[in-house]
């Protein structure tokens, strides 16, 4: 996908979709700071990053016109598809959160159990380096 968009078009497309930077970042699998800096013309994005953004926008019904305008297709089917994808995306995020929490819980439980199973060494009395050793006869 060799399509390029300008920072202004990126911001307009997000606005038409009522997305914030975080929404685009999650969907395009980019860092929010990358998108913010791109939209402020402070940095460029790589071609794979550009392709990811353009692909997501086009899937959501955004059209980039030759005169640099950005429009949202008014197709009724497209609106339903966007809603379905949004619901699926929300479900995927919740599954990820639950899975991550469960993994952290399992890891913590495994560590606690592993620590309890270890044989403990008896503690040796500590000597005080300031007192001279006692001599036994």
What labels would you give this structure?
single chain; 137 residues; mainly alpha; 434 Repressor (Amino-terminal Domain); 5 helices; 4% strand; rod-shaped
Characterization of this structure:
With 137 residues, the chain is mainly alpha-helical. The protein is 60% helix and 4% strand. It has five helices and two strands. Strands 1-2 form a two-stranded antiparallel ribbon. A hairpin with a 5-residue loop joins β1 (62-64) and β2. The longest helix has 42 residues, at 76-117. 15% of the residues are buried.
In short:
Helix content is 60%, strand content 4%. It is built from five helices and two strands, in the order ααααββα.
How are helices and strands ordered from N to C? HHHHEEH
Give me the side-by-side strand order of the main sheet: 1-2
What is the correct CATH architecture of the domain at 7-94? Orthogonal Bundle
Which runs of at least 5 residues are low in confidence (pLDDT < 50)?
Answer: none
- Rough shape? rod-shaped
Distance from N terminus to C terminus (CA atoms, Å) equals 90 Å
Fill in the CATH topology of the domain at 7-94: 434 Repressor (Amino-terminal Domain)
Helix content: 55-70%
Q: Can you identify the CATH superfamily of the domain at 7-94? A: lambda repressor-like DNA-binding domains
The count of helical stretches stands at 5
Give the biggest beta sheet. 2 strands, antiparallel
Say how many strands there are.
2
Q: Helices and strands: which structural class?
A: mainly alpha
CATH classification, class level of the domain at 7-94: Mainly Alpha
Q: Proportion of β residues?
A: under 5%
The radius of gyration over CA amounts to 28 Å
Q: If you average the pLDDT, what whole number results? A: 77
